[in-house]
Amino acid sequence: MAPPGKKSFPLRLDPALYTALERAAAGDFRSVNAQVEVLLRDALGRRGIKVTASEPAKRGRPKKEDSND
Q: Measuring CA to CA, how many Å separate 28 from each of 13, 18, 39, 54?
């Protein structure tokens, strides 16, 4: 399931292309999904289309606020 703020959609790929994506992703220590995002951003950038990165999802435990009563 996609994290909040991410658009989810089905994508059908040729099996050989998916295998190549898996190899490239493993070489860059990324998931296939993250590799597809990187490749799409690179391709758009080469075409002169700048895509600003969304704010990353917050991870981990929330920090405790200091309470000075």
A: 20, 15, 12, 21
